[in-house]
């Protein structure tokens, strides 16, 4: 064992070493280092401006609770307003949805943040569990579609400027790697830190943890004593690409900073080249004829799914 390292700023014993910068930090200085980094990401990609209202999607997991906390502490100095939303997807296994709503409510209350709960069952007539029983598609892909739709729908209804999700640097790196390997070019070009509104009146979608590693998010959440849900969603083990996680973690362990370099390089060099080569082959977006949200065809994917599920359940 070498000598215990000391915090670069206050010389107390360090509790974390930020490896890519060889930066030892105590608890307190790590928390401010982490929040400064999120602030830099928000400014770099122009995610939020003064006077704007952001709705944060909070599932009760570590990433989303940390995001709510970080945005709340940046909201004063940066001049924006924060509210939280939790979707009750109707997942019965592990009492997931129930715990998710309770955990998020507790966290929002502790921070003094407005918390909106939206029941998918009440709003759209079916739950995720019902959709999974009826449609032969991986649960996580159905869930992704439902969440994206419902969050945009709610943020639009309540007039928010931006909708923030807890996607991390690790999520983005994993997504890029799998898209490269399976050559999903269209999905690849959609992967950006900010997605501008596709139609007027919609929120922009922002990912303030675009440059934050999961290990740092966990340290931040633990140092703050955030009470996040330990049990994941019961469908999570059906996710197909988890082996990319192990691979990228190994790359990061050997070359600290590799995930960040990969994602920055993609945004600065690879995506512009891809966009230029795709030219106007990107599908045009128009309002769905049923609900008015963005769609690439006459009726959006969510409205088609909803109709199908309601019909199978005998509710349509
Ligand atoms: Fe969406 Fe688990 S929370 S599939
Ligand atoms: Zn310190
Ligand atoms: Zn629709």
What's a quick, concise take on this entry?
With 316 residues, the protein is an alpha/beta fold. The chain has a single domain (28-312), classed as Rossmann fold (3-Layer(aba) Sandwich). It has helices spanning 27-44, 62-78, 96-111, 120-124, 128-134, 139-157, 169-181, 185-189, 214-223, 243-254, 258-278, 301-312, and strands at 16-18, 23-25, 53-57, 81-88, 114-119, 162-164, 194-195, 204-206, 286-287, 294-295.
What does it look like?
The structure is a single chain. With 316 residues, the chain is α/β, with parallel strands linked by helices. It has one domain: 3-Layer(aba) Sandwich (Rossmann fold). It contains twelve helices and ten strands. It has helices spanning 27-44, 62-78, 96-111, 120-124, 128-134, 139-157, 169-181, 185-189, 214-223, 243-254, 258-278, 301-312; strands at 16-18, 23-25, 53-57, 81-88, 114-119, 162-164, 194-195, 204-206, 286-287, 294-295. The strands form three sheets. Strands 5-4-3-6-8-7 form a six-stranded mixed β-sheet, sandwiched between helices. A two-stranded antiparallel ribbon has the order 1-2. Helix 1 packs across helix 9. The mean pLDDT is 93. The site of one zinc ion has 8 residues, from helix 1.
* Total domain modules: 1
- Any idea what the CATH architecture is? 3-Layer(aba) Sandwich
Which ranges are low-confidence, i.e. pLDDT below 50, for 5 or more consecutive residues?
A: none
Class by alpha and beta content:
alpha/beta
Topology, number of strands: 10
Ligands: FE2/S2 (inorganic) cluster, zinc ion
The side-by-side strand order for the widest beta sheet comes to 5-4-3-6-8-7
| Assigned CATH class | Alpha Beta
């Amino acid at each position: 064992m070498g000598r215990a390292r000391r915090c670069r700023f206050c010389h107390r014993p360090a509790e974390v070493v930020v490896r890519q910068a060889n930066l030892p930090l105590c608890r307190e200085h790590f928390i401010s280092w982490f929040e400064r980094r999120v602030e830099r990401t928000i400014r770099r990609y122009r995610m939020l401006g003064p006077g704007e209202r952001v709705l944060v999607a909070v599932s009760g997991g570590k990433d989303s609770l940390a995001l709510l906390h970080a945005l709340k502490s940046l909201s004063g100095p940066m001049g924006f307003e924060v509210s939280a939303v939790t979707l009750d997807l109707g997942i019965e296994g592990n009492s997931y949805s129930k715990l998710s709503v309770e955990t998020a409510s507790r966290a929002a209350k502790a921070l003094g943040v407005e918390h909106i709960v939206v029941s998918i069952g009440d709003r759209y007539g079916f739950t995720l569990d019902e959709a999974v029983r009826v449609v032969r598609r991986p649960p996580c892909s159905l869930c992704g579609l439902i969440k994206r739709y419902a969050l945009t729908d709610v943020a639009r209804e309540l007039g928010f400027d931006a909708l923030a999700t807890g996607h991390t640097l690790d999520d983005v790196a994993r997504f890029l790697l799998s898209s490269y390997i399976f050559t999903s070019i269209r999905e690849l070009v959609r992967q950006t830190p900010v997605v501008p509104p596709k139609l007027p009146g919609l929120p922009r979608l922002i990912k303030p943890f675009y440059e934050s590693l999961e290990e740092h998010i966990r340290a931040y959440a633990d140092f703050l004593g955030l009470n996040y849900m330990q049990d994941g969603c019961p469908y999570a083990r059906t996710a197909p690409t988890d082996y990319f996680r192990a691979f990228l973690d190994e790359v990061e362990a050997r070359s600290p900073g590799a995930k960040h370099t990969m994602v920055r390089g993609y945004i600065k060099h690879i995506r512009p080249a891809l966009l230029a080569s795709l030219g106007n082959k990107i599908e045009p977006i128009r309002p769905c004829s049923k609900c008015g949200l963005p769609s690439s065809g006459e009726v959006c994917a969510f409205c088609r799914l909803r109709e199908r599920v309601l019909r199978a359940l005998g509710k349509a």
